[in-house]
Amino acid sequence: MLMIDMKYTKDNPLKVCTLFSGYDSQCMALDRLKQNYPDFDYELVAWSEIDNNAIKAHDAVYPQWADRNYGDVSKIDWSQAPDFDLMTYSSPCQDFSSAGLQKGGEKGSGTRSSLLWECERAIVAKKPKYLLFENVKALVSKKFLPLFNKWQCLLSSYGYKNWWKVLNAKDYGVPQNRERVFMVSMLDQEGQYYWPNPFQLPYFLKDVLEDDVEEKYFLDDSRVQEFIQDCSRERLEKSGFKFFDEE
């Protein structure tokens, strides 16, 4: 088992930086950890997000940290950012996803998914003890596994030990069949990381859907037709979706 050399408490909180933060489900997970372990505490010392709607959502959930958004990850001067113990970096998945064009994420390619390599600057500058990565399952497919291995080798060269695994949300209490690859990396770590054991789903989608829904939440006929047009085969093919027709 891993031996944690420091206890993170209210007097000595875990310092966290989240990149590609969204509304920061990462911090929500840490909030749940605080509920389960009352002595534990953390502080979000820096986050990075550029989508306006995501920023609004983040500020609504965590207004106390609204002024700690460092913006575009490619433009952050890490010498001006505070040190942190944990960095999460769920980098853009669009160019790996089987639902997209699969342009990949090679360093310098200019794709959205290539922003993964911008995280290297933060790692070199701050040397966080813990790294947590999440992305689509396609990243460990035959096509993109060499790139993922290259990233792991880079982390290893900086002294990190890596553990990765594909996990499905339905095995951990969420009524959704959602497979994602996760990787935990720890600096100068000689121990072993153990993934959480899956457990039986306690409830299903039907258990959380409301029986009575106000009419304002239904689409009228004109909106339905717009949706059908947006989902036409021609438009979807232009967006990179692939169709496997029956012979």
Question: What do these coordinates show?
Answer:
This protein has 247 residues and is α/β, with parallel strands linked by helices. The protein has two domains: 14-187, Vaccinia Virus protein VP39 (Rossmann fold), CATH 3.40.50.150; 205-238, no CATH class. It has helices spanning 25-36, 52-61, 119-126, 145-157, 205-208, 221-230, 233-238, and strands spanning 14-19, 42-48, 86-89, 130-136, 160-168, 179-187. A six-stranded mixed sheet has the order 2-1-3-4-6-5, with helices on both faces. The longest helix has 13 residues, at 145-157. The chain starts with 13 loop residues before the first strand and ends in a 9-residue tail after the last helix. Mean pLDDT is 90; it is low at 1-5.
Question: What's this model, at a glance?
Answer:
This protein is an alpha/beta fold and 247 residues long.
Query: Which class best fits the helix and strand makeup?
Result: alpha/beta
Can you write the helix and strand succession as a string? EHEHEHEHEEHHH
Q: What does the main sheet amount to?
A: 6 strands, mixed
Based on the coordinates given, report the CATH architecture of the largest domain.
3-Layer(aba) Sandwich
Q: Let me know the CATH homologous superfamily of the largest domain.
A: Vaccinia Virus protein VP39
In CATH, the topology of the largest domain is named Rossmann fold
Low-confidence stretches: 1-5
Average residue-wise pLDDT: 90
The number of domains: 2
Total number of beta strands: 6
Whole-angstrom Rg? 20 Å
Strand-residue fraction? 15-25%
**CATH class descriptor of the largest domain:** Alpha Beta
